[in-house]
Amino acid sequence: MGRLLGMALGFLLSGCSAIPWFGGEEDPRPPAELEEIQPTLKVDRLWVRKIGQGTEGRRLGLAPAFQEGQLFIADAKGLVSAIRADDGQVRWQRETGLSYSGGPAVAGDALILGSIDGDLVALSSQDGQERWRIQLASEVLSSPKIGGKLVIVHSLDDQVFGFDLNTGEPRWVYASQAPILSLRGSSAPLIAGDAVIVGLSGGRLVKLELATGLPEWETTVTPPRGRSELARVVDLDATPVLDHNTLYVCAYNGDLAAVDLESGAVLWRRKLSAHAGLAMADGVLYVTDSDDQIWAAKPSDGAGLWKQDALRYRNLSAPAVLGDWLILGDLAGYVHWLSRADGKLVARQKIADAPIQARPLVVGERVFVYASDGTLAALAPH
């Protein structure tokens, strides 16, 4: 009953500016106008191709995956495609009739996807033939992950499952009590050696044994604050980042924090609301916050190095890192390139007429960008 009430409240609150993505509503805060920039980086558009229907305007966990020169992508109507990464040509496509909402994950001959109806499906990466399918009790709004011979899935009702990669047989389940009200989203699991790390609603982070699902620790990164249920929404919807033995996480309506991998102890916290995601490279953290400002921060204590606020309220994606640059997509189909040194905007390209919500995928010296209307593009700086 609590979970059902939470979902219902989420849709009722879809017009609230504090949580603009409930129910797929547009952010009522006016996005920053794009000011003219003097590009200092040249970016080539290698190819652009329309693949299926994309996310149909909804905020889903669909993003391209790469393996052995191919990109794999699924849309919300059930079309799964394998695309040659070098030229964008379709290798194969398969209509499955499922409303995909998370994935794919790829390893060897296995493609793993989750649906908005709770389907968890394994397809062959060679031709898209179905290998197995099981039914979960809740939606899958983040990408499943593959660790060894297990598929790890985090469902919307805050349960984490381990399934056999080859057969789909259940191996374990970790059940967590979700709060009455939470964001409509969930973080993707992070595989860390023989453990899996998952961010949960209510500002919690858990470390599970990969083989058994037994908890090693659960810690509250940001305790809920405020008097109303809405004010107390604190969710870890961004996938954690691991560097050596330290996890970095950020919470909507909460904090940017560092957590010790072995003990679960919170090493430091900095007030910073974020849900899109974070990245780390060369000892610097990069975060897209809930106002669509981009931050660079020290991993030692979270102190800010620079902030870029020229893209406020443009519904930015999580940042990706390539060389000396950060790459982010926005609500109007633009790809923005920032200098990692100081956050300065150095290039901009429009590749679609729809939002880019998925984090750009970096493979070698190329960047693959997927927009919510199904546009897939390959870019390369030089």
Textual characterization of the structure:
By secondary structure, the protein is mainly β. It has a single domain (2-381), classed as Methylamine Dehydrogenase, Chain H (7 Propeller), CATH 2.130.10. Helix content is 3%, strand content 45%. It has one helix and 33 strands. The protein has one helix spanning 2-12, and strands at 43-50, 61-62, 65-67, 70-74, 79-84, 90-95, 100-107, 110-115, 119-124, 130-135, 145-147, 150-154, 159-164, 170-175, 190-192, 195-200, 204-209, 215-220, 241-243, 246-250, 255-260, 266-271, 277-281, 284-288, 294-297, 304-308, 320-322, 325-329, 334-339, 345-350, 361-363, 366-370, 375-381. A five-stranded mixed beta sheet has the order 2-7-8-9-10, with no helix packed on it. The longest helix is centred in the first third of the chain and has 11 residues, at 2-12. It starts with a helix and ends with a strand. Residues 1-24 have low confidence and may be disordered.
Structure classification: mainly beta
Please indicate the percent range of residues in DSSP E strands (runs of 2 or more).
35-45%
Shape: globular
Q: Which second-level CATH architecture applies?
A: 7 Propeller
Main β-sheet, in a few words?
5 strands, mixed
What name does the CATH topology carry?
Answer: Methylamine Dehydrogenase, Chain H
Uncertain residue segments: 1-24
Radius of gyration: 19 Å
Number of domains: 1
H/I helix tally: 1
- Read across the widest sheet, the strand sequence of neighbours is 2-7-8-9-10
Mean pLDDT: 89
Distance between the termini: 54 Å
